[in-house]
């Protein structure tokens, strides 16, 4: 999928332009639209997380939420979240938007993130069928164990995932 466009925005989420996906993520990274999805099991006691593929340009082999992506010009935030959850983890479930925030993180001298991120949450139980180009591993983890591991090993997790967890009411 070459030449995917990313929606560039201002700090109020107004569209200011479009840019090719990989060019958008090179430093200095312009502010652009994104979504993140968090999935709980049906009881709400466990969260689905995954380890990013080694093929990822930013934060490869870091643990994170089930999926995130850039919103394409022709789709809504929710459509983007639903599309990416199916593409990345092979699942479909009802999602609701919980909050939005802006974050910026530099991965290395070349790559980084600067996103106006809309966070969606859903519940799911069933088979997970991740795309191996996107996901190297996944697991369901109890929320308390996840929070403890992030506190003890923050370097294993993506910066946006730690920010999301800090804002989620769980």
Using DSSP, what is the number of strands?
A: 9
Principal-axis shape:
globular
CATH C-level class: Alpha Beta
Mean pLDDT: 96
Distance between the termini: 36 Å
Structural class: alpha+beta
Largest sheet geometry = 7 strands, mixed
Fraction in helix: 10-25%
* Beta-strand content: 35-45%
How many individual helices?
4
Q: Would you write up a description of this structure?
A:
With 170 residues, the protein is an alpha+beta fold. The protein has a single domain (5-167), classed as Nucleoside Triphosphate Pyrophosphohydrolase. It is 21% helix and 38% strand. The protein has helices at residues 21-24, 77-89, 143-152, 159-167; strands at residues 5-9, 15-20, 32-40, 46-52, 63-64, 67-70, 95-106, 112-123, 135-142. The strands form 2 sheets. Strands 3, 4, 5, 6, 7, 8 and 9 form a 7-stranded mixed sheet that branches. It has a two-stranded antiparallel sheet with strand order 1-2. A hairpin with a 5-residue loop joins strand 7 (95-106) and strand 8 (112-123). It starts with a strand and ends with a helix.
List the topology elements.
Elements: E1 5-9, E2 15-20, H1 21-24, E3 32-40, E4 46-52, E5 63-64, E6 67-70, H2 77-89, E7 95-106, E8 112-123, E9 135-142, H3 143-152, H4 159-167
Parallel strand pairs: 3-8
Antiparallel strand pairs: 1-2, 3-4, 3-6, 4-5, 4-9, 7-8
Give a quick set of tags describing it.
170 residues; alpha+beta; Nucleoside Triphosphate Pyrophosphohydrolase; seven-stranded mixed β-sheet; two-stranded antiparallel ribbon
